[in-house]
């Protein structure tokens, strides 16, 4: 019971982080029709910025805010200098160009921060366990991640569903040409959306940083997961991304935690302990394949015609 | 019609001539390294050429093509480990299993299109990656050393550098010719028709999915061959050859050289891998140059190197 609750919360926390990453990705994908493989690099940059600024200022919150601003700025500069010229091109061009950007970012990080990873220490005011149920304790920092991510998800939902800019974003997702024809400054909207996506990715990176080490290539593995999320959720759909992200987070975490024991009842323990990690890594891809075979446009296709 | 020297044809001929004469150069100068490098280039060019068949001619953007490299490699590695050293058996199994895998994932993936197709092929390749990581008997994550190269009796000795290079080059050129024949056959024309307008082709009465699936399977088999050669080249196979960045590398080679052109992928592989090698000797931070270079090629060099040469030709 204790383990189940703990793993459930871990899964929820991972899922919410994935959502922050996937939300930016699905917006950029849905609105600009841009496949941005470099989104994972922005996640990595967020973590590196945070580790640097926190060490510099000595305050976690101040460092995090600065890192967030820096990722936002980086996203806008990136959109302005490179990605803007890719809109309307073939998806393959996007893949190639942003693949190049991944190489660039990884190498730039190696040049600036060195090949060894950085560590971002847990803020001391969050480094204690919280008793969430009688007898069950959970780290306060992970709870804080859940709270912050839920808050951001709520803000994003309200922003997209209730504000004028949100309306333009939704309109852009369903018909790009039309909102341009109606006199909306699409270029500005695009830059804004990209910056927002970058900031969300940076937020995910900097929040994850104290739990994992900050290292080169940390963006790539999670990027693939974020892509799985938006494909399952339906490209361009924030709601789909949210549901799919929680699903993936829970399945991945719970699978890793409980699959070895389940397998051990079927196979001998040696075979089970080697097969289990591989099988639990496969679970989410299996889920994605099943979803795509059953519903080729994802669970919540945004621009259904 | 005025006969005119076509720049892209000239480049293609020069590349092939260079590849054929390379061992001579290596022998004369005693530069063994260049032969090792180019053996790898030729093998990966074969994979890129097979990817070009589905991407360039079939219009199917597969982001999971490296899976076949792993399947071909593991076929060689696993059979060698189990005491079956015959190259005929190993290569036949490599190609057959690749075909089977392509048939299954192709049948499922072709239900989707566009970005979803890119992602589902990626998902299947990642699954193959994790299956390989879970093969504890065959090295798991650490990979599997191939202690003995495929044995083709007295016909050819894969342990000999030059013989092995020419075997790889023969395979590459044979596959290029095969693809040339395919593309210009009725089957290939239907395929290219499907790429330009699938609905119209269906309306004329072509069963589009069957044609695409056949193409997908052929490409998978050819890449499986490349994987079997790759395992022989490195004497090693590990899940890393199936990782998604490797699929990305293959896509880059195809697009860099020129998608949908016969020799484009070969030129692209040579340029990409030589550039990687040269830049990495120049500076430790080679990717700092390579990354933006890719971006510039996409922004300003539409149609890849072959496309640029074609424009040069027209003036």
TrEMBL record, chain A:
It is found in: Cell membrane. It comes from Bradyrhizobium denitrificans. The keyword Nuclease does not apply. CDD domains: TM_PBP1_LivH_like. The chain crosses the membrane at residues 12-35, 42-58, 64-83, 95-120, 140-160, 188-211, 223-251, 272-294. It is a multi-pass membrane protein. The keyword Cell membrane applies. Belongs to the binding-protein-dependent transport system permease family. LivHM subfamily. Keywords: Amino-acid transport, Cell membrane, Membrane, Transmembrane, Transmembrane helix, Transport. PANTHER family: ABC TRANSPORTER ATP-BINDING PROTEIN, BRANCHED-CHAIN AMINO ACID TRANSPORT SYSTEM PERMEASE PROTEIN LIVH. Coiled coil: none annotated. InterPro entries: ABC_transp_permease, BCAA_transport_permease. This is Branched-chain amino acid ABC transporter permease. It comes from the Bacteria.
UniProtKB/TrEMBL annotation, chain B:
Its main location: membrane. It comes from the Bacteria. Keywords: Cell membrane, Membrane, Transmembrane, Transmembrane helix. It is a multi-pass membrane protein. InterPro entries: ABC_transp_permease (IPR001851), LivM-like (IPR043428). It is found in: Cell membrane. The chain crosses the membrane at residues 7-26, 32-55, 62-81, 87-108, 115-132, 164-183, 211-230, 250-275, 287-309. The keyword Flavoprotein does not apply. The keyword NADP does not apply. This is Branched-chain amino acid ABC transporter permease.
